[in-house]
Design a protein that fits this description.
CATH topology of the largest domain: Aspartate Aminotransferase, domain 2
Distance between the termini: 48 Å
Strand order of the largest sheet: 2-8-7-6-5-3-4
Order of helices and strands: EHHEHEHEHEHEEEHHHEEHEEH
Structural class: alpha/beta
Helix content: 25-40%
Radius of gyration: 21 Å
Number of domains: 2
CATH architecture of the largest domain: 3-Layer(aba) Sandwich
Largest sheet: 7 strands, mixed
Shape: globular
Number of helices: 11
Bound molecules: 4'-deoxy-4'-aminopyridoxal-5'-phosphate
CATH class of the largest domain: Alpha Beta
């Protein structure tokens, strides 16, 4: 017997993980990749040069551990978020990790866990229940309306009766694209018995004000999670962050791994933040392209779901899996998110969107 012969079933895996599937957006080598909601525009040359310089500088200190608390990076994130939301924030309100997935995991490690529950309104980001499972937090699925919007009165009723330790509100919601107005978020915050995580991974694409505005009103409940993976064109750099009361940051220090953000990550993220204006200039282009793609899909007889983000969920297909494969055969990778009759397309460059729209005329409905 070799190591290759051992199967997963033979391992003493936790019972509650048996039979589960890992997160699995396919990474296929096709010409047009519109499946993981990345920014399709590569970073500008000046940013690339700045990241390379920063990496060279810190490379001389690679024998030392990084700043465990990433204070400089958190100051830069606070400056960006304060400016974009008009809410004064300091590094004490900010925490950063390797992607917002790690932020969410740390939140559930601290506020969820065995004997505790996390509630989310489905369909939503598929990692929320997966991270709940990994941290042994019981997942409580709650419904959206048939058109995928959130009925915030019904949501508030449910949350009030739920005793959920953590509530997830994703705004704009992935994979459906709609966002929740501040008064709707407040209806839930007012009655929530525990922590409310507003996952704002796509906030820069939305014209709605950020939930950060509500921090002073709900300091013991509200956590706003953000990422540099989408609008910031930094998915490969892996940098997520949150804004919350400083006490929330203190709580996460209890569960984070020491030195979780490498010197390279911290330096690269700070360099990328110095070029925020250049990177975020793509947001307006992407929002305009999103509206064009939605109009074109309507013109082709599809039913796109109104989106505030850099992707569009659309239907209807009699067999979404077969349609997904037909797109791949046409050189376009989009996403089957498991919603009957629907697929999700990320907004790409105008050329990529045209390729997607051309393929949309070919695929079986
Ligand atoms: N939240 C939402 C709603 C997302 O869609 C994603 C990425 N698909 C994330 C969080 C995590 O992104 P990252 O870990 O790259 O920050």
């Amino acid at each position: 017997m070799t190591a290759d012969d051992v199967t997963l079933a033979q391992l003493p895996l936790r019972e509650d993980l048996r039979g589960r599937s890992p997160y699995g957006a396919p990474q296929l080598d096709v010409p047009v990749r519109l499946n993981t909601n990345e920014n399709p525009y590569p970073p500008p040359d000046e940013l690339v040069a700045d990241v390379a310089d920063a990496a060279r500088r810190v490379a001389a200190q690679l024998h030392r551990y990084p700043d465990r608390d990433a204070v400089g990076l958190r100051q830069d994130l606070a400056a960006y978020l304060s400016e974009s939301t008009d809410v004064p924030l300091t590094e004490r309100n900010l925490w950063a990790a390797n992607g917002s997935n790690e932020i969410l995991q740390q939140l559930l490690q601290a506020f969820g866990g065995p004997g505790r529950t996390a509630l989310g309104f489905e369909p939503s980001y598929s990692m929320h229940p997966i991270i709940a499972a990994g941290t042994r937090t019981e997942w409580v699925p709650a419904p959206r309306r048939d058109d995928f919007s959130l009925d915030t009165d019904q949501a508030a009723d449910l949350v009030a009766r739920s005793a959920a330790d953590v509530v997830f509100l994703t705004s704009p919601n992935n994979p459906t694209g709609g966002s929740v107005p501040l008064d709707g978020l407040e209806s839930v915050l007012r009655v929530a018995p525990g922590i409310v995580v507003v996952d704002e991974a796509y906030a820069e694409f939305s014209a709605r004000p950020s939930a950060v505005r509500l921090l002073d009103d709900y300091p013991a409940k509200l956590v706003v999670s953000r990422t540099m993976s989408k609008a910031f064109a930094f998915a490969g750099g892996r940098l997520g962050y949150l804004a919350a009361a400083p006490a929330v940051v203190d709580a996460l220090q209890l569960v984070r791994l020491p030195y979780h953000l490498s010197v390279l990550t911290q330096a690269a993220a700070r360099a990328a933040l110095r070029h925020a204006d250049a990177t975020l200039a793509s947001v307006a282009t992407l929002a305009a392209e999103r509206d064009r793609v939605m109009e074109s899909l309507l013109g082709l007889g599809f039913t796109p779901v109104p989106s505030d983000a850099n992707f569009v969920l659309f239907g209807r297909f009699s067999d979404a899996a077969a349609a997904w494969q037909a797109y791949v055969d046409n050189g376009v990778l989009i996403r089957d998110v498991g919603i009957a009759g629907h697929l999700r397309v990320s907004i790409g460059t105008p050329e990529e969107n045209d390729a997607f729209l051309t393929a949309s005329k070919e695929v079986p409905r």
